[in-house]
Design a protein that fits this description.
Layout: E1 2-7, H1 14-26, E2 33-38, E3 54-55, H2 60-63, H3 77-92, H4 96-106, E4 112-118, H5 132-139, E5 141-149, H6 161-167, E6 172-175, H7 178-187, E7 195-197, H8 204-211, E8 221-226, H9 238-247, E9 252-257, H10 263-272, E10 279-283, H11 289-292, E11 297-300, H12 309-317, E12 320-324, H13 329-333, E13 337-340, H14 344-356, H15 371-379
Parallel strand pairs: 1-2, 1-4, 2-3, 4-5, 5-6, 6-7, 8-9, 8-11, 9-10, 11-12, 12-13
Helix pairs in contact: 4-5, 9-14
């Protein structure tokens, strides 16, 4: 079976990590011929893709959708002008017309495939970026077309008529948890018979092995967050919460592993509150497990989440989770942590309870879930 997967890039991120693991697993099955098209063929995870996966050369029209306007000058004048006009049009109207033009310019990708997969959901219809769905629908010839949803579709910022109609053009939709599936159907009931649950794959052995490489030791009770430093992850609200806990006499450390657009703002807030001895920004890495291994809790302060891979990674390490009540939290955390209401005051109460009291969490194995089997069944 010939399969092509389209993604925006392979930088460190939950969706990219999920795809990397899927490619590793499916590449072990010789009956599948896998190709990968990255709009921008860059990122830490790119070199980790199995050698058997064919990676297409970059297409400059696709590249210009995944980098700042200023960087498009290096591609050539036509790409800079395309990006500038298309971004303006998308912002004023939506990206329907720019997407049509873009796909015409990209042209046909590859040959005829049995299955074509967009591995990321569409984002804000006014943003001229992340065209994986449009590319699969318009630039690839395939018998079956599938789109993956890794978000709370009702709340993630891309729930628009344009995006709902886009998803309705696919033969099947893969949702990364039962809760994600239910939320998508609420947003677009027409998809009810086309949405399937395909959970993310976690390589427990790899997590455990990497966790033992230069694992970090702590002298105090420790919280660790592993996430992109972006608005939806809730990291900007943590300094004030941490300051309040510290002032109340709770002695602990908080390490945030990851990079992103809010890093400078977060650094500034940590400095303003004199939290340099309590909050630590560890930066982006492909081995966050060395920070997680000896921590006391994984802390997830997100405003909204779908099915974070880090929940399963924490489970593999026997690390209890402290999380806000996002759509898949109860489904994925169960008795392996504490879930609180998504309010700053409730987060502070949860952290204080966890850090100051003794708790017992259940890490016994539950019924085995086989994500690869779910994916292979999706292909049929």
């Amino acid at each position: 079976m010939k399969i092509i997967v389209v993604i925006n890039h392979m930088n460190v991120g939950g969706i990219q990590k999920s795809l990397l693991q899927l490619l590793k697993e499916i590449s072990k099955c010789p009956q599948y011929d896998i190709s990968l098209f990255c709009c921008k063929a860059t990122g830490t995870f790119l070199d980790k893709i199995p050698k058997s996966v064919k990676i297409f050369n970059e297409n400059p029209y696709a590249v210009c959708t995944e980098q700042p306007l200023s960087n498009c000058k290096s591609l050539g004048k036509r790409y800079y002008i395309l990006r500038m006009i298309s971004s303006l049009w998308s912002k004023v109207f939506n990206k329907a017309l720019p997407a049509f033009v873009l796909c015409k310019l990209i042209g046909q990708i590859g040959e005829k495939y049995d299955v074509a997969i967009s591995y990321s959901q569409p984002i804000d219809e006014h943003a001229f970026c992340n065209f994986t769905n449009e590319i699969v629908l318009n630039c690839i010839s395939a018998d079956k077309k599938i789109s993956f949803i890794h978000c709370d579709f009702l709340n993630y910022g891309g729930n628009s008529k344009y995006n709902r109609e886009l998803l309705c053009k696919f033969d099947k939709i893969a949702a990364v948890s039962n809760s994600v599936k239910e939320r998508l159907i609420l947003a677009e009931p027409k998809l009810k018979d086309r949405v399937y649950t395909v959970r993310n794959i976690t390589d427990k052995e790899e997590v455990l092995n990497k966790a033992s490489i230069d694992s970090v030791k702590y002298n105090k009770k420790t919280l660790v967050s592993v996430c992109r430093l972006s608005e939806e992850k809730g990291v900007l609200r943590t300094p004030d919460i941490i300051k309040s806990l510290k002032d109340s006499g709770v002695d602990f450390e908080y390490h945030i592993v990851g990079g992103g657009p809010l890093q400078k703002e977060l650094e500034k807030r940590i400095s303003e509150l004199n939290l340099e001895d309590t909050m630590f920004l560890e930066g982006e890495t492909d081995n966050p497990y060395r920070y997680m291994k000896n921590a006391d809790f994984l802390f997830v302060p997100s405003y909204h989440e779908a099915a974070p891979i880090v929940f399963d990674e924490a489970r593999a390490l026997g690390l209890a989770v402290l999380t806000t009540d996002t759509i898949s939290a109860k489904e994925m955390v169960e008795n392996r942590g504490i879930i609180c209401e998504n309010e700053d005051s409730e987060i502070e109460k949860m952290l204080k309870t966890a850090l100051c009291e003794n708790h017992s969490f259940d890490f016994s194995e539950d019924a085995e879930i086989k994500p690869l089997k779910e994916f292979l069944e999706l292909l049929n």
